Amino acid sequence: MPPVSDIRIGISGWRYGPWRKDFYPAGLRQDDELAFASRAVNSIEINGSFYALQTPERYCQWRDQTPDDFVFSVKAPRYITHVRRLKEIDEALANFFASGPLLLGDKLGPFLWQFPPTLKFDAQRFSDFLDKLPKDRKAARACAKQADERLQGNAGTAIRGNARLRHAVEVRHPSFLCDTFIALLRKHKVALVVADSAGKWPYVEDVTADFIYMRLHGDVELYSSGYTARALRRWRMRIQAWAQGGQPEDAELVVPRAPTKRTTRDVYCYFDNDQKVHAPYDARRLLGKLGLDGELVTEPGIEPHVQL
Predict the structure, then answer these.
(1) HEC profile for 86-140?
(2) Torsional class of 30: left (φ above 0), alpha (ψ -120 to 50), beta (otherwise)
(3) Mutual orientation of helices 123-132 and 179-188 as an angle, nearest 10°?
(4) Model-wide pTM > 0.90
(5) For residue 298, is it within any domain?
């Protein structure tokens, strides 16, 4: 049997007030929203970790509330990307990895590093940052040993093994659209996020790793507009091209050359147009267009096939 890409289509976060009595059925407890959402999509981007360090107990709860074949991505702390702006981040990196994301175990997908629109590309600063990122679990545990004393001994790195870790970066300043940045990402096998932001931030599709990471924030109105059937068909075709190891014929590139050809390439795609409850429905529709909704709930709003 030929190798098959792992295609994950999901949502960024899951706890939103406007989703209640809409995507989430009336009467569903807030504590059961993750269990419900994780049976309607096959991946979710954890974004609470962007705003504050989470706890080992919380990562374990999220792991245990989701199906066996589910995958999370984890959004890294804004303290590193927005506050420290990659300066003097050794302890902050250690604190993040000590806080518990490794406890997701086999459900741990990529780490997302989102940078602010005001941060310009600095080759040395980014090279140093990429050098610091742990590339496997063993390196992450070693990094976590440098954490603040309050995080030592909290079992946040209790998962053993040495599985590879994946990282993706989302940039929002045009100075990153240069050959040097693309070369750095390829050297470290870090993915450049394909970010659809209604034209507000740079949109590029250079393949820099053995996986693709997509964030769909809305193609007409940032965070608010839904995707039409035509737009979703376009995304389906692009995902299929990437998943088959190539790239779309009309790919928007910084470096105008094809990526190294592969038999397959994994794809992670998250809808972030949550303000008007479009994200979960758009994710469901795209899963359907890719034929990946067979084991999921037939319609959002219907009781999941589990006892909540």
Answers:
(1) CCCCHHHHHHHHHCCHHHHHHHEEEEEEECCCCCCCCHHHHHHHHHHCCCEHHHH
(2) alpha
(3) 10
(4) yes
(5) no
Is 90 a domain residue? yes
| 168 touches 193 (CB < 8 A) | yes
308 within a domain of the structure (yes/no): no
Nearest by Cα to 228 from 167, 273, 295: 273
Nearest Cα neighbor of 70 from 102, 41, 92, 112 is 41
Q: Residue written as tokens 């147009």?
A: 273
Q: Count Cβ atoms below 10 Å from residue 267 Cβ, excluding itself.
A: 22
Considering Cα of 58, then 104, then 88, then 212, what sign does the dihedral take? negative
Write out the E strands in the chain: 7-12, 43-46, 71-75, 108-114, 167-170, 191-192, 194-196, 211-216, 266-271
Number of domains in the chain: 1
Question: Per-block average pLDDT, block size 10, for the chain (308 residues)?
Answer: 84 96 96 96 98 97 97 98 98 97 97 98 98 97 94 87 96 98 98 96 97 96 93 98 96 91 94 91 97 66 40
Cβ–Cβ under 8 Å, residues 256 and 263: no
| Closest CA relative to residue 36, chosen from 52, 50, 19 | 19
- Which is nearest to 100 in space by CA: 72, 67, 125? 72
How many helices (DSSP H) and strands (DSSP E) are in the chain?
A: 10, 9
Quote the longest CA-to-CA distance of the chain. 53
Q: Which two tokens stand for residue 105?
A: 């175990």
Structure tokens at 127: 């090279």
Work out the angle between the directed axes of helices 229-243 and 279-289 (0-180°, nearest 10): 60
Within 10 A of 213 (CB to CB), how many other CB atoms are there? 28
Q: Domain holding 181: CATH number?
A: 3.20.20.410
Record the tokens describing residue 87, joined without a space.
Answer: 């300066």
